[in-house]
């Protein structure tokens, strides 16, 4: 249940309580007026109580008037002096000034760059986020939300109209985008980070271990290659005279792999890097043969309905597989996502360097946002308040603070009665002091 729904019954209770307090004070005053006539011997005491009741009525009525004129004119269409008329319906009359003041208040106290910077510097945002993410219940909450929303998003993009629209636009974008520059940058990133060395090393290690641990499969693979190349008969004939061609080729392959693994400066490695460097430089030039060949090949593939249909079908299969997994009770994707979220939270909390970098970037982003968009947010708030209907605005304000305002009326009756009681006692003491 929303806060507003709670505020409306509270407003009604507070208003009823204020009215009841005022009625009780007025009733007591009337009853005391009557009792004075019938109990003259106790007039001094009844006058004290009467003064308390009168003060309670005055306090309650004064507070009722003060609260009412904030929202509306309690006199209706009665002719009033200008002084009274201009000080009714205070909030509706000053709606524009309130809108500007609210916008200025939000800007000065919440969205100014200095306030944002100071707030973030006092708070380790990433530590709080890490601790929150590391809690299994919170990670499960994120996972559940992902499981609920992801299939809907996939269904949306799976609609024929949306799918065809995106396919046409993606294909057109890919056709209009030259891939040579992007490919050159990718090769440069691979070479500068020595990623190609790691891939080559791992590939050679894998091949070496596989051939060493699977000699029969290696011989079968070599035999198949010989047969497909049409030299199987030649290898069989060499075997008749005692030459195991397959074994020699496998051994030669193993020796070559071991040489490449042991020697980082092996000509094959050096040649591979040189060819990659040459390809990277060639792709930078849009007029080079490599760049034109890459772009023409890309366009030829995109112009092929078979290729586009294949890619579309692959995407559909992948989409259905992801959706089916997410909708199952034992979803592997959801389980892995939850584990990854918890691990991410723990890693963030234990790494001060990462948190320091993230906090600095969050601070820069927040300050940039407050600098560039604070005025837009303030204008939106002010404009929204300007657009409010006066009755709607009054209803919103009354629903939020009206309950407290009507409790002021109750306090007015109680405090007024108490002050009246004290004044009545003082007057009685003064009047009965012998001269």
Question: Please, could you describe this protein's structure?
Answer:
Keywords: Membrane, Transmembrane, Transmembrane helix. Pfam families: DUF445. InterPro entries: DUF445. This protein is mainly α and 435 residues long. The protein has a domain of 188 residues. It is built from 20 helices and no strands.
Determine the structural class based on helices, strands and strand pairing. Answer: mainly alpha
Number of helical segments? Answer: 20
Mean pLDDT: 77
Helix content range of the residues, please? Answer: over 70%
| Largest β-sheet summary | none
Q: Strand share of the residues?
A: under 5%
Poorly predicted parts: 1-6, 229-243
Radius of gyration: 42 Å
Quaternary structure annotation: single chain
Specify the overall morphology.
Answer: elongated
Number of strands: 0
Q: Separation of termini?
A: 68 Å
Succession of helices and strands: HHHHHHHHHHHHHHHHHHHH
InterPro entries: DUF445
Protein name: DUF445 domain-containing protein
GO cellular component, one term: plasma membrane
Keywords: Membrane, Transmembrane, Transmembrane helix
Helices and strands, with pairings:
Layout: H1 3-38, H2 43-71, H3 82-85, H4 90-93, H5 95-111, H6 113-121, H7 125-134, H8 136-158, H9 160-176, H10 180-192, H11 195-213, H12 215-229, H13 232-240, H14 245-262, H15 267-284, H16 289-303, H17 305-327, H18 332-350, H19 352-387, H20 390-431
Quick take:
The protein is mostly helical and 435 residues long. 86% of the residues lie in helices and 0% in strands.
